[in-house]
Amino acid sequence: MNQSLSSRKGYRLFNRFLVLAFLVVFLVCVFPVAGNGEPLSGPDDPAGLKVPLQKSARLILEDHPEKAVPILKTLLKAYPDYAMVHFLLGLAYGKLDENEKAVIEERKALVLNPKSEAARVSLGIALGNTGHFRQEIRSERQALALNPKDEMAWEAIGWAYASRGNWRLARASEEKALKIRNSDPSAHMILGVALAHLGFPEEGMTEEKEASRLDPDDRGVKRAISWIATLLHPVKEGEGTGQGHFNPLLSPENGPNLPGVPSPDVPVNPNNNGNGTLRAPVGH
């Protein structure tokens, strides 16, 4: 990528959770745990905490974060010093595109529980959604220091590197993510674009086709496939523009150019993740 995305706000799929099913079981409410096995509540917690926490987690998982927010705010009035309440509230804010509030809540969660891997990853994504990619990278590295096998953190840090145009580190990060969990379409998508930028378009197309198989409706993947196709089958001179400038994190509604290529006459859409929404925070 020949341009920086560091001044833009968002970039990741909101409804995957972000693949996410992005996280597989990040908030599987049938089990009383949040991400990476962190319990929603413990045996010594107040009796009034467990049920509303599980209800809030379920609402976030079912894509109703707006219903979870008032429950969690009420919990905070009674239990202001519980990290899991702040974590879930940050998660809900992130899914509502209120990433500045998400950053505040995840930081509060980490003050109360510095070893919360889930809050570290969620904080990083919220920071990235506000354009602070270096801070996101730092937060994801801290999560990886807690658990080097955290697939979510590897996927997130790879996305942040891609946002900064560092395709070699983006490639390395997504390859590590996929060794841990090979069914993450977001990791395949970013890896494919990174490979294409590094001179391996055929391998990149293979990754994009796998991403498409895993998530057929992802517009970012469709745009990446369209772009890599122009590398494999170049258009004649004058028929296309900007082939070297593609980044999958750009919004598709940029004007008349090749998908993913910004038009000089149209400002970049800050909601630049292919589905027209911000990248999701950790959790779904």
From TrEMBL:
The UniProt record lists the keyword Hydrolase = no
Q: Which terms are listed as keywords in the entry?
A: TPR repeat
Q: Does the keyword GTP-binding apply?
A: no
InterPro entries the record matches: TPR-like_helical_dom_sf, TPR_rpt
Segments carrying the region annotation (Disordered) are: 236-284
What is the annotated signal peptide range for this record? none
Checking Pfam families in the record gives:
TPR_16
> Which parts are the TPR repeats?
83-116
What is the protein's given name? Uncharacterized protein
